[in-house]
Amino acid sequence: MSDLSGILGVAVYQRPNERVVIRLVGSLDAAGAVRLVDAVTAIELTGGDMAIHVDAVDLLDSAGIRALFHAEALVRVHGGRVVLVSPSRGVRLALEDEAVGTHFHVESGVGHA
């Protein structure tokens, strides 16, 4: 039996001279973490920030948190930072539970790409 509801959807938007935007939908668990790392690794980073929209992430576990740290490390090497946009309640709680709630910069999402 297969349940596709747990699959993480990843959409990447990248325009010259603008920050990279990633929209995530679904579960950022072990399988989702692989999808996120693959997507981030494939992006041509040029030094700007990366906005990761996590308002539609319904599950964030330790593997997903490690994937966010991996994304941040790659972006930081190029002089940027990762910004979590509109974290869902579940994302906020998971980050707080892992004591990394203040590690990432967070934006409300209003007026942001």
Structure description:
With 113 residues, the protein is an alpha/beta fold. It has one domain: STAS domain (Transcription Regulator spoIIAA, 2-Layer Sandwich), CATH 3.30.750. Helices cover 34% and strands 28% of the residues. It is built from 3 helices and 5 strands; from the N terminus they run ββαβαβαβ. The protein has a 5-stranded mixed sheet with strand order 1-2-3-4-5. Helix 1 packs parallel to helix 2 (62-77). The longest helix has 16 residues, at 62-77. It starts with 8 loop residues before the first strand and ends in a 6-residue tail after the last strand.
Mean pLDDT over the full residue set: 88
Number of strands: 5
Helix fraction? 25-40%
CATH class: Alpha Beta
Strand content: 25-35%
Rg, Cα atoms, Å: 13 Å
In spatial order, strands of the major sheet run 1-2-3-4-5
Pattern of helices and strands: EEHEHEHE
- Could you give me the name of the CATH homologous superfamily? STAS domain
Main sheet, how many strands, which sense, barrel? 5 strands, mixed
Could you say what the CATH architecture is? 2-Layer Sandwich
Secondary structural class: alpha/beta
In total, how many domains does the architecture comprise? 1
What CATH calls the topology is: Transcription Regulator spoIIAA
Which of globular, elongated, flat, extended, rod-shaped describes the shape?
globular
Which runs of at least 5 residues are low in confidence (pLDDT < 50)?
1-5
What is the rounded distance between the termini? 37 Å
User: How many alpha or pi helices?
Assistant: 3
